[in-house]
Amino acid sequence: MISRTHKDVEFHVERPDRTVKTTHHFDKAAGLAVAIAASGRLAHIDIIVWSEAGARALYGDEGAEAFREDPGASVFERIEVKANNLGRVS
Length: 90
Known about the structure:
The protein is α+β, with helices and mostly antiparallel strands. The chain contains two helices and four strands; from the N terminus they run E-E-H-E-H-E.
C-alpha cells in the first residue's frame, strides 16, 4: 500500500499502555498495529500529513487536493486494524 517515506508524513499507533508510537515507515506502524490486533484489541494507524508535498508523496495529485481541502485536519487518514482468531486449523 504505502511504501514511500516523506519527512512530512508520520504514522501513529496507540499502544495498549496509551503511549503513541510514531514512525515515518508504514510497515513499522502496520506491524505494531497487527501485533496489537492479534492480542485482541482494536488498533488504528493514524496517517499524519504536515504538508501538501507529503500528501502528494503518498497519494499523488488526489492526495495534494485532499490536503488543500482541509490542511488543518488532525488525521489525514485512519486505518482500523483488527484480527479474528479462527482457532486451530487441521
